[in-house]
Amino acid sequence: MNYREEKDSLGIKKIPADVYYGIQVARAIENFPISGLRIDKVFIETYAKIKKAAALVNNQSGNLDSIKTEAIIKAAEEVIEGKFDEQIKIDVYQAGAGTSFNMNLNEIIANRALEILGHSKGSYAIVHPNDDVNMSQSTNDTFPSAMRIAVLEYHKNLLRELYALEQVLRHKSKQFRSVIKSGRTHLQDAMPITLGQEFGAYADSIANQIHCLQKASHSLHYLSIGGTAIGTGINTPPLFSRKMVKILSSLTNSTFKKAPNLIEKTQSMTDFVQYSAVLKVFCLELIKIANDLRLMSSGPRTGLAEIELPAVQPGSSIMPGKVNPVICEALTMICFQILGNDLTISMAAQAGQLELNVMMPVIIHNLLFSIRILANGIHMLSNKCIKGITANELKCSWYFENSIALVTLITPTIGYLKAAELAKEAVATGKTFYALIEEKGLLSQKELKQLKDIKKITGS
């Protein structure tokens, strides 16, 4: 294998001649052979956009000549296009703050810029990873800024899936609005409800979580770029931060602003914790919905069997004909993973000290992973489960008519204790509430008819 020699503050090291990364990344590869996990592709693209924007602003400020600027921009654009993904070698578990990852981009862009200019890789006297590509920047402001931009990129897709889920649930609510069934509390008979009301409640819970997620995303629009090492903006030209924010907004089709306090945004990870916390709460709600669907579809002979979920694959390797609620099961596992990711994010966020939180790499890895698998899971739930749910109206009606809780309807007339005795008699004899009412002559036919009014009973 052919090698080139590169030098840093620790000494000289041989680097494979054909690679685009340099000595600092080579050291990190040796130091952190941990998981084989790599930073998310969207984060790579976002970071390269920051490098492109910085080259433009540095050129406008007169600190970077046009020849270098054009080469750096061209190289950054190729990184954005994914041409150098295989050269991103840094493990997720790396040196604190993401310095190794920042240098991975700096070295790739510098070496590709050198090629564009007709020079060999490693000729850093012409284009330098730190002096040119990283000019007016620090890992400490580029990394958290890239985190914010990347999260918001994934946020857009997550919102699309959430709105779609809400709409499909509302459609089911309308479809099932006349399907009466027994409600259940403590897994025991409770007052009647329509299947449509249940699905309508699910839709509203999704709408509430969308609102919370939107609110949590607002603070992510404020970037710390231009704060450099600790947020004071050392080694940046005038108005660097404001110019960077403007260009990044254009490059990402989003609206970003300079953070009011760059020091605060450099040292605090609270905004990411808040966003992750909303994902956690949302997952708790999704787990509840998935469990409800599994319960209502249990059977087909020995469970509730109120609804039927779409059959998407055989359920057993030994029991022929068995079909399981696999979509709900998969979604629940996704949610469990996100709950674990949230704990990691929380612990990493509180582990910052003074002017910097060095745990940023593990925060962004887990947060982007959470958003991605949640969006995919919701898409799966909407299209492979909710859309195809059908109601077993006969079974639901039977549960409604045989519910012991129906005695509540006559409690205002005969009192709680007599109603309780009536419930015991219904259980002992197997007779329905309505049959006992009629048999004992407790109500007139007109009054009995009113007790069977579904809209009045359910408030629908």
TrEMBL record:
Domain Fumarate lyase N-terminal: 14-340
Keyword Lyase belongs to the record: yes
GO molecular function terms attached to this record: aspartate ammonia-lyase activity
Record keyword Lyase present: yes
PROSITE patterns referenced in this protein's UniProt entry, alphabetically: FUMARATE_LYASES
Gene3D superfamilies, per the entry: Fumarase/aspartase (C-terminal domain) (1.10.40.30), Fumarase/aspartase (Central domain) (1.20.200.10), Fumarase/aspartase (N-terminal domain) (1.10.275.10)
Record key words, sorted: Lyase
GO cellular component: a single term: cytosol
NCBIfam families: PRK12273.1 (NF008909)
Protein name per the record: Aspartate ammonia-lyase
Native source species: Candidatus Fischerbacteria bacterium RBG_13_37_8
